Amino acid sequence: MPKTIKFIVLIVLIFLLGVFFISLNKSTDYNTEHLIGNKLNKIKFESLEHKKIFTEEDFKKNNYTLINFWASWCAPCRIEHPILIKLSKEQNLKILGVNFKDKKINALKFLKDLGNPYDYLAKDTSGKESVNYGIYGIPESILIDNKYIIKKKFIGPLNLKDYDDILEVINSL
Amino acid sequence: MKIKIYALIFFLHFSSILSANQIVDQNTIHKNLRCLVCQGQSIADSNSDFAQTLKMVVKDLINQGKTEEEIYDFLSDKYGDWILYKPKFNLENFLLWFFPYIVLVVGGFIIVFLIKKRSKKV
Question: Please, are residues A163 and A86 in contact by the beta-carbon 8 Å criterion?
Protein backbone atom coordinates (compact mmCIF):
# COMPACT_ATOMS: atom_id res chain seq x y z
CA MET A 1 0.00 0.00 0.00
CA PRO A 2 1.50 3.36 -0.97
CA LYS A 3 2.41 5.85 1.71
CA THR A 4 -0.33 8.33 0.67
CA ILE A 5 -3.10 5.79 1.29
CA LYS A 6 -1.60 4.73 4.61
CA PHE A 7 -1.47 8.40 5.58
CA ILE A 8 -5.11 8.99 4.60
CA VAL A 9 -6.29 5.90 6.50
CA LEU A 10 -4.32 7.04 9.55
CA ILE A 11 -5.82 10.55 9.38
CA VAL A 12 -9.36 9.11 9.09
CA LEU A 13 -8.73 6.79 12.07
CA ILE A 14 -7.36 9.64 14.20
CA PHE A 15 -10.36 11.77 13.21
CA LEU A 16 -12.84 9.03 14.14
CA LEU A 17 -11.10 8.35 17.46
CA GLY A 18 -11.15 12.10 18.15
CA VAL A 19 -14.87 12.29 17.43
CA PHE A 20 -15.57 9.31 19.74
CA PHE A 21 -13.32 10.71 22.47
CA ILE A 22 -15.01 14.13 22.46
CA SER A 23 -18.54 12.73 22.12
CA LEU A 24 -18.18 10.11 24.85
CA ASN A 25 -16.79 12.66 27.29
CA LYS A 26 -19.61 15.09 26.62
CA SER A 27 -22.71 15.13 28.84
CA THR A 28 -25.71 13.92 26.87
CA ASP A 29 -28.24 15.27 29.37
CA TYR A 30 -30.56 17.64 27.60
CA ASN A 31 -30.95 21.11 29.04
CA THR A 32 -31.88 24.56 27.85
CA GLU A 33 -28.85 26.36 29.25
CA HIS A 34 -28.21 27.84 25.80
CA LEU A 35 -30.98 30.32 26.64
CA ILE A 36 -28.83 31.99 29.33
CA GLY A 37 -27.83 35.44 28.10
CA ASN A 38 -30.82 35.67 25.76
CA LYS A 39 -33.34 38.45 26.15
CA LEU A 40 -36.94 37.58 26.86
CA ASN A 41 -39.11 39.34 24.34
CA LYS A 42 -42.77 40.08 24.85
CA ILE A 43 -43.45 38.67 28.29
CA LYS A 44 -47.17 38.07 28.51
CA PHE A 45 -49.02 36.11 31.20
CA GLU A 46 -52.60 36.16 32.34
CA SER A 47 -53.10 36.79 36.04
CA LEU A 48 -54.39 33.79 37.99
CA GLU A 49 -56.57 35.81 40.31
CA HIS A 50 -57.61 38.90 38.37
CA LYS A 51 -58.47 39.95 34.83
CA LYS A 52 -55.03 41.35 34.22
CA ILE A 53 -52.19 40.65 31.82
CA PHE A 54 -48.65 40.80 33.13
CA THR A 55 -46.21 42.21 30.59
CA GLU A 56 -42.53 43.17 30.73
CA GLU A 57 -43.58 46.62 31.98
CA ASP A 58 -44.63 45.00 35.27
CA PHE A 59 -41.12 43.63 35.86
CA LYS A 60 -39.12 46.61 34.63
CA LYS A 61 -38.82 48.13 38.09
CA ASN A 62 -37.50 44.92 39.68
CA ASN A 63 -33.76 44.43 39.85
CA TYR A 64 -34.30 40.73 39.34
CA THR A 65 -37.36 38.59 38.68
CA LEU A 66 -37.55 34.85 39.13
CA ILE A 67 -40.15 33.25 36.86
CA ASN A 68 -41.20 29.98 38.46
CA PHE A 69 -43.38 27.48 36.59
CA TRP A 70 -45.34 25.33 39.01
CA ALA A 71 -48.57 23.38 39.57
CA SER A 72 -50.45 21.98 42.53
CA TRP A 73 -50.33 18.48 40.98
CA CYS A 74 -46.55 18.57 40.68
CA ALA A 75 -44.81 16.74 43.54
CA PRO A 76 -41.33 18.29 42.99
CA CYS A 77 -42.97 21.72 43.24
CA ARG A 78 -43.75 20.93 46.87
CA ILE A 79 -40.09 20.05 47.44
CA GLU A 80 -38.83 23.39 46.10
CA HIS A 81 -41.53 25.46 47.82
CA PRO A 82 -39.54 26.17 51.03
CA ILE A 83 -36.69 27.52 48.86
CA LEU A 84 -39.12 29.87 47.12
CA ILE A 85 -40.45 31.01 50.50
CA LYS A 86 -36.86 31.80 51.56
CA LEU A 87 -36.20 33.64 48.29
CA SER A 88 -39.36 35.71 48.70
CA LYS A 89 -37.69 37.47 51.64
CA GLU A 90 -34.92 38.84 49.41
CA GLN A 91 -35.06 42.58 48.67
CA ASN A 92 -33.54 42.48 45.18
CA LEU A 93 -35.82 39.77 43.92
CA LYS A 94 -39.47 39.51 42.94
CA ILE A 95 -41.03 36.18 42.08
CA LEU A 96 -43.53 35.55 39.31
CA GLY A 97 -45.31 32.23 39.75
CA VAL A 98 -46.76 30.78 36.57
CA ASN A 99 -49.37 28.19 37.43
CA PHE A 100 -49.01 25.55 34.72
CA LYS A 101 -51.93 23.47 33.37
CA ASP A 102 -53.71 23.57 36.69
CA LYS A 103 -57.08 24.34 38.23
CA LYS A 104 -57.35 27.69 39.98
CA ILE A 105 -59.05 26.22 43.06
CA ASN A 106 -56.26 23.63 43.51
CA ALA A 107 -53.55 26.22 42.91
CA LEU A 108 -54.94 28.59 45.53
CA LYS A 109 -55.36 25.76 48.03
CA PHE A 110 -51.72 24.75 47.44
CA LEU A 111 -50.59 28.30 48.26
CA LYS A 112 -52.90 28.54 51.26
CA ASP A 113 -51.47 25.31 52.70
CA LEU A 114 -47.78 25.89 51.92
CA GLY A 115 -47.54 29.69 51.86
CA ASN A 116 -47.43 32.14 48.97
CA PRO A 117 -43.93 33.19 47.92
CA TYR A 118 -45.12 34.93 44.74
CA ASP A 119 -45.25 38.68 44.14
CA TYR A 120 -47.12 38.05 40.90
CA LEU A 121 -49.39 35.10 40.27
CA ALA A 122 -50.05 34.14 36.67
CA LYS A 123 -51.46 31.16 34.82
CA ASP A 124 -50.74 29.18 31.68
CA THR A 125 -53.75 26.89 31.47
CA SER A 126 -52.94 25.39 28.07
CA GLY A 127 -49.15 25.30 28.55
CA LYS A 128 -48.65 27.02 25.19
CA GLU A 129 -47.28 30.26 26.64
CA SER A 130 -44.52 28.35 28.46
CA VAL A 131 -43.11 27.13 25.12
CA ASN A 132 -41.95 30.74 24.56
CA TYR A 133 -39.67 30.26 27.57
CA GLY A 134 -38.28 26.86 26.56
CA ILE A 135 -40.23 25.05 29.29
CA TYR A 136 -40.69 21.30 28.80
CA GLY A 137 -41.57 20.13 32.28
CA ILE A 138 -42.19 21.61 35.67
CA PRO A 139 -40.90 22.90 37.97
CA GLU A 140 -38.61 25.16 35.99
CA SER A 141 -37.37 28.61 36.94
CA ILE A 142 -35.81 31.48 35.01
CA LEU A 143 -33.94 34.33 36.66
CA ILE A 144 -34.02 37.56 34.64
CA ASP A 145 -32.66 41.03 35.29
CA ASN A 146 -34.42 44.36 34.71
CA LYS A 147 -33.40 44.26 31.04
CA TYR A 148 -35.14 40.86 30.72
CA ILE A 149 -31.84 39.07 30.14
CA ILE A 150 -31.84 35.45 31.34
CA LYS A 151 -29.19 35.17 34.05
CA LYS A 152 -29.93 31.62 35.21
CA LYS A 153 -32.21 28.79 34.24
CA PHE A 154 -33.14 25.96 36.57
CA ILE A 155 -34.68 22.71 35.40
CA GLY A 156 -36.31 20.69 38.14
CA PRO A 157 -36.93 21.68 41.75
CA LEU A 158 -34.77 24.45 43.19
CA ASN A 159 -32.33 23.20 45.81
CA LEU A 160 -30.01 24.87 48.30
CA LYS A 161 -27.22 25.18 45.74
CA ASP A 162 -29.60 26.93 43.34
CA TYR A 163 -30.66 29.18 46.22
CA ASP A 164 -27.01 30.17 46.79
CA ASP A 165 -26.50 30.71 43.05
CA ILE A 166 -29.53 33.01 42.91
CA LEU A 167 -28.33 34.96 45.95
CA GLU A 168 -24.90 35.33 44.36
CA VAL A 169 -26.43 36.87 41.23
CA ILE A 170 -28.95 39.14 42.92
CA ASN A 171 -26.45 40.39 45.49
CA SER A 172 -23.81 41.17 42.89
CA LEU A 173 -25.40 44.58 42.25
CA MET B 1 -56.52 31.95 -29.41
CA LYS B 2 -55.13 28.46 -28.93
CA ILE B 3 -51.89 29.91 -27.62
CA LYS B 4 -53.80 31.97 -25.08
CA ILE B 5 -55.69 28.88 -23.86
CA TYR B 6 -52.45 26.90 -23.57
CA ALA B 7 -50.84 29.81 -21.73
CA LEU B 8 -53.81 29.95 -19.31
CA ILE B 9 -53.69 26.18 -18.70
CA PHE B 10 -49.93 26.36 -18.16
CA PHE B 11 -50.33 29.30 -15.76
CA LEU B 12 -53.08 27.55 -13.74
CA HIS B 13 -51.09 24.31 -13.60
CA PHE B 14 -47.91 26.10 -12.56
CA SER B 15 -49.63 28.22 -9.91
CA SER B 16 -51.33 25.12 -8.46
CA ILE B 17 -47.92 23.42 -8.18
CA LEU B 18 -46.54 26.50 -6.43
CA SER B 19 -49.44 26.71 -3.98
CA ALA B 20 -49.18 22.97 -3.25
CA ASN B 21 -45.54 23.49 -2.32
CA GLN B 22 -46.48 26.30 0.04
CA ILE B 23 -48.95 24.20 2.06
CA VAL B 24 -47.38 23.46 5.42
CA ASP B 25 -47.85 19.82 6.33
CA GLN B 26 -48.53 19.55 10.06
CA ASN B 27 -47.65 15.82 10.16
CA THR B 28 -44.27 16.37 8.50
CA ILE B 29 -43.45 18.98 11.13
CA HIS B 30 -44.60 16.72 13.98
CA LYS B 31 -42.38 13.90 12.67
CA ASN B 32 -39.35 16.19 12.61
CA LEU B 33 -39.82 17.41 16.19
CA ARG B 34 -38.29 15.40 19.02
CA CYS B 35 -40.39 14.78 22.11
CA LEU B 36 -37.90 16.00 24.72
CA VAL B 37 -39.46 14.04 27.57
CA CYS B 38 -39.80 10.74 25.68
CA GLN B 39 -37.34 8.02 24.73
CA GLY B 40 -36.45 8.55 21.07
CA GLN B 41 -39.93 9.51 19.90
CA SER B 42 -41.10 12.34 17.73
CA ILE B 43 -44.08 14.38 18.91
CA ALA B 44 -46.08 12.66 16.16
CA ASP B 45 -45.57 9.31 17.93
CA SER B 46 -46.08 10.58 21.46
CA ASN B 47 -49.13 11.35 23.54
CA SER B 48 -47.13 12.95 26.33
CA ASP B 49 -48.23 16.26 27.78
CA PHE B 50 -45.27 18.03 26.21
CA ALA B 51 -45.98 16.54 22.76
CA GLN B 52 -49.65 17.59 23.00
CA THR B 53 -48.67 21.17 23.90
CA LEU B 54 -46.14 21.35 21.09
CA LYS B 55 -48.71 20.08 18.59
CA MET B 56 -51.05 22.90 19.65
CA VAL B 57 -48.24 25.45 19.30
CA VAL B 58 -47.37 24.13 15.82
CA LYS B 59 -51.04 24.39 14.82
CA ASP B 60 -51.19 27.99 16.07
CA LEU B 61 -48.01 28.91 14.20
CA ILE B 62 -49.37 27.38 10.97
CA ASN B 63 -52.59 29.35 11.44
CA GLN B 64 -50.49 32.49 11.88
CA GLY B 65 -49.08 31.79 8.42
CA LYS B 66 -45.59 30.68 9.49
CA THR B 67 -43.63 28.48 7.10
CA GLU B 68 -42.16 25.11 8.05
CA GLU B 69 -38.70 26.68 8.29
CA GLU B 70 -39.96 29.52 10.50
CA ILE B 71 -41.61 27.02 12.85
CA TYR B 72 -38.34 25.05 13.15
CA ASP B 73 -36.44 28.30 13.75
CA PHE B 74 -38.86 29.35 16.48
CA LEU B 75 -38.69 26.01 18.30
CA SER B 76 -34.93 25.53 17.96
CA ASP B 77 -34.52 29.05 19.34
CA LYS B 78 -36.44 27.94 22.46
CA TYR B 79 -35.20 24.35 22.84
CA GLY B 80 -31.99 24.22 20.82
CA ASP B 81 -31.28 22.20 17.66
CA TRP B 82 -31.80 18.99 19.67
CA ILE B 83 -35.54 19.37 19.16
CA LEU B 84 -35.10 18.86 15.40
CA TYR B 85 -34.57 15.37 14.00
CA LYS B 86 -33.17 16.82 10.79
CA PRO B 87 -30.23 18.95 11.91
CA LYS B 88 -29.84 22.45 10.53
CA PHE B 89 -27.05 23.24 8.12
CA ASN B 90 -24.75 25.65 9.92
CA LEU B 91 -21.09 26.15 10.81
CA GLU B 92 -21.40 24.04 13.95
CA ASN B 93 -22.58 20.89 12.19
CA PHE B 94 -21.43 21.34 8.61
CA LEU B 95 -19.19 18.25 9.01
CA LEU B 96 -22.30 16.22 9.74
CA TRP B 97 -23.59 17.13 6.30
CA PHE B 98 -20.32 17.05 4.38
CA PHE B 99 -18.44 14.15 6.00
CA PRO B 100 -20.23 11.45 3.95
CA TYR B 101 -19.35 13.33 0.75
CA ILE B 102 -15.75 13.79 1.88
CA VAL B 103 -15.53 10.04 2.59
CA LEU B 104 -17.09 9.32 -0.82
CA VAL B 105 -14.59 11.54 -2.65
CA VAL B 106 -11.57 10.28 -0.69
CA GLY B 107 -12.77 6.66 -1.06
CA GLY B 108 -13.29 7.19 -4.80
CA PHE B 109 -9.84 8.68 -5.07
CA ILE B 110 -8.30 5.64 -3.34
CA ILE B 111 -10.24 3.19 -5.56
CA VAL B 112 -9.24 5.02 -8.77
CA PHE B 113 -5.64 5.13 -7.55
CA LEU B 114 -5.60 1.38 -6.84
CA ILE B 115 -7.29 0.47 -10.16
CA LYS B 116 -4.82 2.59 -12.12
CA LYS B 117 -1.91 1.03 -10.28
CA ARG B 118 -3.16 -2.51 -10.95
CA SER B 119 -3.82 -1.84 -14.62
CA LYS B 120 -0.27 -0.47 -14.98
CA LYS B 121 1.11 -3.69 -13.46
CA VAL B 122 -0.94 -5.83 -15.88
Answer: yes
